[in-house]
Amino acid sequence: MARVDTATRAAARITRVRSRVLDLPLPADFRPAWGRGEVQRSFFVTLVEIETEDGITGVTAAEAGPEAAVAIERFVTPHLVGQDAAAPERLIGVLRDAEVLGSPVYFVEVALWDIVGKLAGMPVYRLWGAATERVRAYCATGEVRTAEHRVEDCRRIAADGFRAVKLRFHSDDPREDIKVVEAVRRELGDRLAILVDANQAGVLPGMGGHRQWSFQTAVNVARELERLGVVWLEEPLSRHDYAGLRRLRDRLGTMQLAGGENNHGIHEFALLVEKGCYDVLQPDAVLSEGVYQIKKIAALAEAAGLVVAPHTWTHGIGLLANLHLVASIPNTSLFEFPHEPPGWPASALSQMLVEKPWIDQDGCLAPPQRPGFGFELDEELVERYTVARFG
Fold first, then answer.
1. Residue 1: is its pLDDT beyond 50?
2. pTM for this one?
C-alpha cells in the first residue's frame, strides 16, 4: 500500500459519523422472486459518511432503513469518533461486536477504506493489488417470468452486450422454472451462459406459502440444470446445511454450486470452505463481512481452489465496493450486475451515484479510477429522498 506520512495519518482522526436514510423510488412495480407476493415500489438505503478532522469523508451505505442508522448511532459512532480512520484493522472489532447488539454493520468498513484510498490518492483495488482492470459481468434478473417473456428478455440482454444471465427459480413446481431455462437455451443457444438462483438459503419474513427445497428436490433440479449446461446453481439449500450442500456438490459433474450471501463473518465462510459446500463463494461487502475481511476470505478460497463472486443486489455503492474487491483478487468469477427492467434496471440500483455503472462492449465492468472507491454522490437526489437523519 502507498506510504502515508505521519502528518497525513494524524489528519485521519474521525470527527463525525452521520447517517441519512433514503427511500429510493423504482421506475415501475418490481415483484422480487425471493419475496413471495411482494410488490416493491421503492427501497431503503442508509447512507453513512465518516468525516475526518481535515475534511476527508469516507462513504458507505447499508441495504436497510432506520434500523441500520440507529445501530450505527448507538453501537458504532461512540467507538469511532477520535479513532484513526486510516487504520481499519484496529476498528474491525467494533463492527463485529455491534452485530451482537443490533443490525449487522459490516458495511461501515467500506467508508474506512474509502478514506485510506483518498489519503493515498489511489483506487482501493490498486491499493490491494490490482489483479485485473476489468471483470466479466452477468445480468442478474430478479423476477419469475414466463418462458416466452424471459426469452424476449434474454434477447435484449444479449443485444445489450451481456455474455451471461442469471434466472430465478421460485415456482411452486420447479419443473416450470426448468422450462424457462430450456426455452432460453433453445432460442439463444450458447450466446448467453446461464446461471440459476434458487434463493433457498434463508426464507424472508412474510413469505407465506414458500416451501424450501428438500435435498432430493435440489438433486433433481441440479441434474436437469446440468443437462442444460447451466454454469452454476445458487443457494439450493439452507445456508447452514453444510452436510447437505457437500453431499449435493459431490453429486455434480460440470455444474458448480454457489452461495454464501446469507452467511455472516469470516468464521462461517471458513466453515463453508472447510466442509466443501461450494465451488463459488458469494459474500457481500455490504451484508456478509467487512470488505477487506472478504479479501481474507478470498485467500482461504484461493488456497482451496475456489472462486469468489460477490452478491451485489444492494445498491450502487455496494456494487462498486464489491467490484473493487474482485478486481484485487486472482480467484474471481462472473460478477453479479442486477438489471431487471422495467421495475429494477441497473440505473435504479445506482441512482444515488452521478455515474451509473454499465458494461463495456465486451460485457465487462471496470472499477472507477478516482481515489478510494470512486463514489460520486448525486447530492440533489440524495437530499430529495432523505426521510431521516442521524448524527
1. no
2. 0.95
